User: Fold this.
Amino acid sequence: MDPGDAILRDGRDLRAVVCELCRRLHRAGWASGTGGGISIRDGDRAYVAPSGVHKELIAPEDLFAIDLEGRVLERPIDPALTTSACTSLFLHAYRLRDAGAVIHSHSIHAMLATAITTGSEFRISRLEMIKGIAGHGWSDELVVPILENVAHERDLAPALADAIRAYPATHAVLVRRHGVYVWGRDWRAAKAHAEVYDYVFQAAVELHRLSR
Ligand code: ZN
Assistant:
């Protein structure tokens, strides 16, 4: 058994869960080169990783605890560390969707799905896995808004908030040639959603390739 399995099976030490999920995001290729990340909310506070660190090497004491306005409640020992560039985007999912956790993935499947899609929406239907997204069934079309990428991650926050409001059924927002933000009611739901969305994005890319 993977040593991290016990952390996730127990699931109560949310700082440890953030670190273990960061390791898994990195292993999956979703958080290479310090990109990507995850935040988990615990009531009116949330844990976020520092900016620009290797996500697979984060320890519980490296995390920031912030309130839902983004104010720092607890900080890492190293004073040079700053909160993840994704923080303001995570906060929108917490405040606008009452999410319990948010995953930001730089998965190549998410990136390629936006590269083969013109316009501001990714749409797909007739895939069994769509049922894995809360509120969706086999006969539903899965629609994910796509934001245009910007030079600095934090500057995506206003457009992300607009997309969350405009697409009440979505649990994810794609960013063109960049990746995806995915959330769920708790970290387990966010993890499941992230895996399902990634499967769907990969399926779309493969179907596109096969159709050419
Ligand atoms: Zn990113």
About this structure: Helices lie at 3-10, 14-27, 87-97, 108-115, 157-166, 187-210. Strands lie at 37-42, 45-48, 64-67, 72-74, 101-105, 121-124, 142-147, 172-175, 179-184.
